[in-house]
Amino acid sequence: MVAHRGASGYEPENTLRAVRRALEMGVDAVEVDVRLSRDGVPVVIHDETVDRTTNGRGLVRSMSVEELRRLDAGKGERIPLLSEVLEEVKGGCVLFAELKEVDAAAPALELVEEAGLLDVVLFISFEQEAITTE
Questions:
Q1: At what angle do helices 105-115 and 82-89 cross, to 10 degrees?
Q2: What are phi and psi of 83, to 5 degrees?
Q3: Which of 2, 66, 91, 129 could form a disulfide with 29 if both were Cys (CB 3.0 to 4.6 A apart)?
C-alpha cells in the first residue's frame, strides 16, 4: 500500500504528521511532492501555490524557506523540508518523491544521497526531463 501525500485522508497532506501516520498504519511506501523554494531548498508541497493547503497565499517558488515555514499547513503543521521527510521515513518504508519541477531533481537527489537512501527512494515525475539520466 502506498500512502498518497502521506496519510492525507487522516492528516494534512504532505506534512510530517501525515508521513508519521502513514508509517504507523504500516504502509509499504509513502508518496510526497517536491518543489523548490525561492532559495532552492526542496520542500514538500503539491501545488504551485500555498493557497489551498496553507493559511498563506502565493507561489511556492516565490517564497523563501523561512517564509514557507511560517505558514500553517493544517493542524499546526509546517511545510516540511524534503530532508525532514527523508529522516522520518529512514528505515520505515519506501519513499516515492514526485518531482513537480525539473530543477528540483538535482537538489533532491543530493539530499537522498547524503541521507544514504538511494535504495529506498524512487523519483517519479510528469516532467520527463526531471527523471531522465544522460
A1: 40
A2: -60, -35
A3: 2
CA distance 27 to 73: 23
Query: Is residue 57 exposed (0-12), middle (13-18) or buried (19+ Cβ within 10 Å)?
Result: exposed
Report the half-sphere exposure of 54 (CA within 13 A, side-chain side).
26
Structural domain contains residue 114 = yes
Distance CA 115, CA 110 (A): 9
Domain containing residue 113: CATH number? 3.20.20.190
User: 134 in a domain, yes or no?
Assistant: no
- From residue 33, how far is each of 4, 134 by CA, in Å? 9, 23
Per the structure, how many domains does the chain have? Answer: 1
Return the closest-CA partner of residue 123 out of 68, 113, 39, 10. Answer: 113
**Residue span of the structural domain in which 80 resides:** 2-127
Task: Give the pLDDT score at 47.
Answer: 99
Domain annotation covers residue 7: yes
Q: What pTM value is reported for the model?
A: 0.96
pLDDT digits (tens, 9 = 90+) for 3-43: 999 999 999 999 999 999 999 999 999 999 999 999 999 99
Positions marked catalytic: 4, 46
